[in-house]
Design goal:
The protein is α/β, with parallel strands linked by helices. The longest helix has 35 residues.
Length: 450
């Protein structure tokens, strides 16, 4: 918008009265923006048009001087001097505010401390503008000279070094997590088989948890919302394999991928991923883009893959769903006609809050971040309510390794269980491998003998 205004502002002619009203209106909009809107949750988004349009009104008004507009106030020498510091202020204020909140471990800033932060930001802006910005801006050297190159290099060096060190730290933390998770200090799901463990700083760390996702989420093998094509990707043993397991369904199927991959690599199994974002294995109308069309093709594609076993979710652990959808049953029956057996796993609980953010804000043991087990995974499973369940579906429930008592907690055995509201982290899923392997391998051997 700024670029468009730059190209057209000299051609915009307004009557003085409109220019005056527009300028003051823009200034009022700009000042009230932070007062009227919950900027911490509404940005980025369309709401950004409010301050942007306010700036446009101010600039257009200033180009059409009326003598009574906001340009009179904003053009005062004091305001001009403050404006000269504004970029430095923009750079400094958020840094100081963020460090202040972290150091004092608070969410709200008092009026007095807020004023002090503003004053300190203004002072640092003045210092940086005086000692750094102005000298560089006023340098009288050839822009193509070595001196200019050296200056730019000196400016960029701290940024490059800081980013490099931060990246190294994140990678080191990630490698450390991979080594520790599964140990007696970080047993994850295995904690419920142990008598006692010491409380350790949870893993993955806050910096790494958002990336702790199964491979199909990141390597492009999970189909996106906008396409009905059935994507087929192979993992594990892709040649001379002893069996084939197809992972099918939506993202709540996908997040089991890392456990299946470990089992596949150990037992010479071909693991075929056939998942689509937001699209369960069901003939029910999901109402999501391309999902119904994807489900029309999926059975035929599974038949082409010829798996010994299909691994998928057998029900939905969502708040308002109390039974296995008929669409699930119809797809399971379609597989039954093809002679394909199904490893149907109970859906994992959904949390009310974004798990990593919640434990950062309230702490791992806060009730804010836990949820009552009965609300999301009641004692009586939806599957057990079926009078005539499909004969080819073998139902497995790992809920007790996630929520052992009355609460589902975000950190299990010092491992963060979820990377968002409803998807298991790779780190935690990997601690479930022994339990899944104990069920899957005997079933697979039994199916292969038929």
């Amino acid at each position: 918008m700024g670029a468009l205004l730059c190209l057209t502002i000299t051609k915009i002619k307004l009557p003085k009265i409109l220019a005056a009203i527009g300028g003051w209106l823009g200034l009022i909009m700009l000042v009230l923006c932070g007062v009227l809107f919950e900027v911490s949750t509404m940005f980025p988004g369309y709401i950004a048009l409010v301050p942007t349009l306010a700036a446009v009104l101010i600039l257009v008004s200033g180009e059409n001087e009326s003598g009574k507009g906001a340009e009179k106030f904003l053009g005062h020498p004091i305001m001009v001097k403050l404006g000269a510091l504004s970029y430095g202020f923009y750079l400094w204020h958020w840094v100081i505010l963020t460090f202040y909140k972290e150091i004092y471990n608070i969410k709200q800033v008092s009026l007095l401390h807020g004023i002090l932060i503003i004053v300190l930001s203004a002072f640092l802006s003045w210092v940086v503008t005086l000692l750094v910005e102005k000298p560089i801006r006023n340098l009288k050297i050839n822009h193509q000279s070595f001196k200019m190159f050296a200056i730019l290099l000196i400016i960029l060096l701290p940024v490059v070094l800081t980013n490099g060190l931060w990246k190294y730290k994140i990678e080191t933390d990630s490698n450390k997590s991979e080594v520790l998770i599964g140990s007696d200090d970080y047993p994850g799901a295995r904690v419920f088989d142990m008598k006692k463990i010491d409380k350790k700083p949870y893993l993955p760390t806050a910096a790494n948890i958002s990336d702790d996702k199964a491979l199909p989420f990141t390597d492009g093998c999970q189909q996106n919302l906008d396409s009905a094509e059935v994507k087929i990707c192979e993992y594990g043993a892709t040649k001379n394999y002893d069996a084939t397991v197809a992972l099918v369904g939506g993202s709540h199927s996908t997040h089991w991928h890392s456990a299946l991959l470990k089992i596949a690599e150990k037992h010479n199994i071909r693991l075929v991923n056939m998942t689509k974002a937001g699209c369960r294995l069901s003939t029910g109308k999901e109402g999501l883009p391309k999902c119904d069309e994807w489900n029309e093709h999926i059975i035929g594609k599974i038949a082409e893959v010829k798996p010994d076993l299909v691994f998928t979710t057998a029900e939905i652990s969502y708040f308002n769903i109390k039974e296995v959808p008929q669409g699930y049953i119809e797809q399971f029956e379609a597989l039954n006609k093809l002679g394909i057996q199904v490893f149907g796993v109970r859906d994992t609980p959904y949390f009310r809050n974004h798990v990593p953010r919640c434990i950062e804000e309230f702490g791992r043991d806060s009730k804010e971040c836990a949820i009552e087990k009965v609300l999301v995974v009641p004692d009586v499973t939806d599957w057990s309510k079926l009078k005539n369940p499909p004969a080819n579906v073998h139902y497995y429930d790992y809920t007790d390794h996630i929520c052992p008592d009355t609460l589902c907690r975000p950190v299990i055995g010092n491992v963060v269980g979820y990377y968002d509201t409803g998807h298991l982290s790779v780190s935690f899923v990997n601690t479930l491998v022994p339990y899944i392997e104990e069920d899957l391998i005997p079933l697979l051997n039994k199916v292969k003998k038929k």
